[in-house]
Design goal:
single chain, mainly beta, globular, 7-stranded mixed sheet, 50% strand, 4-stranded antiparallel sheet, 124 residues
Length: 124
């Protein structure tokens, strides 16, 4: 399984970004996907998750007002739309495939394959 995250970059506070994660080597339509992030000096944390069919979604409590996760199964791609970005959103953002059927939820332990991540830097 390979995951390729993209769409990160350097933005200003208040800007928006849309991250993408392309998955190959696995039946994408039956795989839940999660987004996580890791800021410098901090542990990796849950951001959002989406079920295989896209009908179940979960968001980190402190981010849910500013982010939206979606997927295009025809393109084997999951998206993370982020708005009103803040300097504290600066992190490497990772996507991962669930090792549990259809939906991985919030725990890193439920995800088996990870991409290399994409850097998001928000300047004040």
């Amino acid at each position: 399984v390979q995951l390729q995250a993209s769409g990160g970059g350097l933005v200003q506070a208040g800007d928006s970004l849309k991250l993408s994660c392309v998955v190959s080597g696995r039946t994408f339509a039956t795989t839940g996907i999660g987004w996580f992030r890791q800021a410098p000096g901090k542990e990796r944390e849950f951001v959002a998750a989406i079920s295989a069919a896209g009908n179940a979604k979960d968001y980190a409590d402190d981010l849910k007002e500013r982010i939206t996760i979606s997927r295009d199964n025809a393109k084997s791609t999951v998206f993370l739309q982020m708005s009103s970005l803040r300097p504290e959103d600066t992190a490497v953002y990772y996507c991962a495939t669930s090792s549990r059927p259809f939906f991985g939820g919030r725990s890193e332990n439920n995800y088996g394959s990870w991409g290399l991540g994409t850097q998001v830097t928000v300047s004040s």
